[in-house]
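Subject: for your reference before the review

Hello V.,

The reviewers asked for a structural picture of the protein, and I figured it would be easier to keep everything in one thread rather than splitting it across files. Below is the amino acid sequence we used in the manuscript, unchanged from the supplementary table.
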Amino acid sequence: MPESFSFTIAVSVVTVSAFAAAAVVTPVVRAVARRFGAVAVPRSDRWHRSPTAMMGGIAIFIAVMATVPVLVQPSRARWVVLGASTLLFVIGLVDDFLKIKPYQKLIGQLAGAGIVMYFGLVLPWTESAALNMLITLVWLIGITNAVNMLDNMDGLSAGIAAIAALFLGLNFAINGQLNEALMLAGFGGALLGFLIYNHNPASIFMGDCGSMFIGFFLSSCALLSGTGGGRSRSLLAVLAVPVLVLCVPIFDTTFVTLMRKLSGRSASQGGRDHTSHRLVALGMSEKNAVWMLYALAVSAGVLALLARRASLDVSLAAIATFTIILTFLGIHLGRVRVYSEDEIAAARSKPLVAFLINLSHKRRIFEVLLDVVLISGAYYLAYAIKFGPLNASREWQLFLRTLPIVVLVKILSFLAAGVYRGIWRYASVSTVINFGRAVALSSVATVLTIVFAFRFEGFSRTIFILDALILLLVVTASRFAFRLLRGIVRNGTSTGRPVVIYGAGDGGELVYRELLNNPALQYVPVAFVDDDPAKSGRLIHGVRVYSATTSLAGLCRKLHAKEVLISTEKITGERLTAIVGECAAAGLLARRACMSFEALRPADFGWVVPDRDDLPVGLPLVSRLGDPALLRDFTHRHADN
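And here is what came back from the structure prediction:
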């Protein structure tokens, strides 16, 4: 207990000291940067909108070096990390001033990685020393550049690095590597002190000197887990902890690189196409986009701690689930248009890119592969619930023998039941019913197959009941994943014109969903108004319903709405006239947005219907103006109005 208390005091002292140092030094660095013109000017391929001071990495570097070497007990390994990270800081600083070539920065990164590996710090992921060194080289350079690429929105890179430092430090503390944990505490404190000035709206950026120092420091600190005698011997923990702790920069870099390649761009070419930018394009505010990625980093950190403590099967299941979630997020973000049509068309002319784009559009391939994982996982969980963790018992031997058969039979059953004909974004209650039928069919087919092949000897009926229930749950959850993601993004929506929907019935709810499902309309529903007093004060999708006795003009002023969409058809002409008049007096635009099936008479638009007895069947209507396309235009405009 005394030792734990003293360690807590030491962590507090190091963290607070580094935090205070960064908080004091950063405004000084900002003033000097502005004085000498070290300012980032807004550009078309950059996110910031006003000139912002650079060189914030100097403040982070000073805060770390002024506290960690002084307050943390030195060792050769820790000095190696600090020394090599200093080299990367210097290279980044030179790049900030002189704009050196990418290959020159790469040479510097190779030199830093060489120093670290020369002193024996490597990732112990395999039994081969040479392979471990190669993996370590890729790790150090990859994470350094990933953190550099992540520095694309106010507070994002520094905040994610601080979260990574927290969980990496916790992992060290659990391993008994207290000095390494203290070093990460000082590093995290310096980042938090810098975040005071770097969060949205940022008054200073870290620059390459900061991002390269941070990325290399974190990636090389991850190698220190191999120097502690208390390190977990679990291979999964050794592999998963550093990757999960740094999963956000890894995910962002992988995603951006892939999307740029598919669009014919160079991976090193800058642009507003990162994960954070796409979240904003989907409707989130900048702050909410950054906080969502913070939450993702925290989730990955918690999972990393779970992976090193939980049993192998639980860890694998949790990591697989997290990987599927990241995959869904990547697919959802990949649909956001951030590149010009000319770039995409040029990229598709290249054979390899055309093949990859064509493959990426084969969503059914992904669905089948996903279901293979879900079917295997559900079957495994059923056995784990019934017989405990995987072991060498007869029951688990039956599981291993029958798993390929179960997967094949259930995939074929899903195909026969029409599971792969649905569109995920429109998943509904009827979709769940269809999944229930498909799961029931697949379970019956599986049991019959096992009876035929194994006479059902040694199998438990409970297994197949549990398997069916779990499979229905995970398959349904996977298909509703996109709706969940859209709901999360929708909660952070800040773009678009606020609009009030008049009518809180089925028509109003339908209009609400259309506005949110169609971002091109650029509308954000902020309130419903309805004539039914019983609906007043209730919520529809989280949006409040107001009584029709409420002043429409006053409500729109309060919610900053400029338009009113009338969704209900059950409204008298007198009431409709009153609403339009009130909107006109208040300078508001009133639109009719109900879903009617009113027949359109071509004669009302000046169209002549040809004599069908004299002309071939199916000949289009002929306009007096001589342009058949005008019919579609008039029809669409009439429907809109």
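For the response letter, the relevant points are probably these. The chain has four domains: 2-360, 363-485, 496-592, 602-640. The longest helix spans residues 2-35.

Happy to draft the paragraph if you're swamped.

O.
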